[in-house]
Amino acid sequence: HKTAEALAQRYDIRELVDIEIFVSTQSVIQALLQRNCSEALSWCKENQLRLKRLKSTLEIHLRLQEFIELALKGNKLQAIEYARKYLAPHAETHLEEIKGCMVVLCFDETMKFDKYRELMDGSRWQRLVDEFKKDLLAVYSFTAHPLLHIVMQSGILALNTQQAYQNWSYNVNDPMCNKLFQTLAKKLPLTYKKNSSLVCRMSGAVMDGNNPPMALPNGHVYSYQSLEEMHDTMGCIVCPATQEQYHLEDAKKAFVM
Asked: For 14, 58, 78, 194, which has the most beta carbons within 10 A of its beta carbon?
């Protein structure tokens, strides 16, 4: 979020973005990483109705973690009281999870049974962080991936052709000929175009009856207008692909079958 905040300040658009939501919830994430559920539970209480509609399991998982921590620290009676107060109301929907955690009342942090070691695994806290982030996005109707990425990939997907990756088919008007866009498109499938048009890779203009494709003696094809403009400017035609020089009359109209 620091990058987004810096960008918003630079272009004075802070009032138009939702940075405050993410800034205010950073303390919740930091508290969870420090093995403290208090702030996350407060956030759950503030957003209780929304989380209920989403059928979120974040609160019960936070309560279970607090119960486990109490039991493993030797506060067995306090853990039992905690379970009666905070876990019992969830018994109807999460009975199996609650029963699975009750075993910690019989052991401490030196427990050697692999079956139950997961209850003391530090990765449980990271899973709580991930679940909190997921619910945070859902509560505010945010997408899991930035909208900019989604929009760009949608556009790239429509333009991602095999020809764009060939040096000989470079087109100044094709964004996919740009190396940066090609990097973004690495994991995206190539698009399939049933109907295509001829585009001059020198000018980016469509080649049709008014601007026909012209083949040079070396086999490379460009639009008539591009060749004519080059000939008028330079006195000859220099093929961009091979650097060979020709006269305009050397170009022949090409026909596509």
From this structure: 58
Q: What angle is formed at CA 166 by the lines to CA 206 and CA 251, rounded to 5 degrees?
A: 50
| Confidence tier at 168 by pLDDT (50, 70, 90) | low
Q: 0.90 exceeded by the pTM?
A: no
- Kindly give the interhelix angle for 58-72 and 91-101, rounded to the nearest 10 degrees: 30
Q: How far apart are CA 104 and CA 71, in angstroms?
A: 6
Tokens of 232: 């008028």
As a whole number of angstroms, the distance between CA 119 and CA 122 comes to 9
Nearest to 21 by CA among 135, 148, 125: 135
Please, which pLDDT band fits residue 151 given cuts at 50, 70 and 90? confident
Q: Read off the pLDDT of residues 79-88 as tens digits, 9 standing for 90 and up.
A: 999 999 999 9
Backbone torsions φ then ψ of 138, nearest 5 degrees: -70, -40
d(CA 104, CA 211) in angstroms, rounded, equals 80
Cα separations in angstroms, 168 against 42, 70, 140, 253: 61, 68, 48, 20
Report residue 28 as tokens.
Answer: 């919740």
Pairing assessment for the beta strands 221-223 and 252-253 based on DSSP bridges? unpaired
Nearest to 10 by CA among 18, 2, 142: 2
* Burial of 257 (C-beta count, 10 Å sphere; 0-12/13-18/19+): exposed
For residue 58, give the nearest of 75, 39, 77 by alpha carbon.
Answer: 39
Q: How confident is the model at residue 56 (pLDDT cuts 50, 70, 90)?
A: very high
Q: What is the DSSP letter of 206?
A: B
The Cα 24–Cα 125 span in angstroms is 20
